[in-house]
From TrEMBL:
It comes from the Bacteria. This is Anti-sigma factor antagonist. PANTHER family: ANTI-SIGMA FACTOR ANTAGONIST TM_1081-RELATED (PTHR33495:SF2), ANTI-SIGMA FACTOR ANTAGONIST TM_1081-RELATED-RELATED (PTHR33495). InterPro entries: Anti-sigma_ant, STAS_dom, STAS_dom_sf. It comes from Streptosporangium pseudovulgare. Belongs to the anti-sigma-factor antagonist family. Transmembrane segments: none annotated. Residues 19-116 form the STAS domain.
Amino acid sequence: MSRELFVDIAHHHDADCAVVTVTGDIDRTSSPLLRGAVDRLVSGGQAHIVIDVKGVTFCDSTGLRTFLSGMTATFEAGGWLRLAGVGGHLERLLQITDLHSFFIIDPDVAGSLASARTRG
């Protein structure tokens, strides 16, 4: 049973980044929602993005491509993309595809924000 994807964006001006919280399944039909959110942030000048994936219940290859395209977009804009709360299915998928070391991964959003603040 597919779980609808929800995306919420919070701006953290003290850390000069946005946190995109995603819950539900990231797949072929839902990934455009996440990709659109990241694209809007980058085109609006926000090149430092944390994606909180703690609530992700499923992710397929389309979701992985969405993370990769977001990382590319932020990098090209002079920023970065971090994943927070990676675990379970998503962690296994990142390890199997050898992408785990490709992303900056923090245990949780608090860790991502602390890292962002020290870089500023």
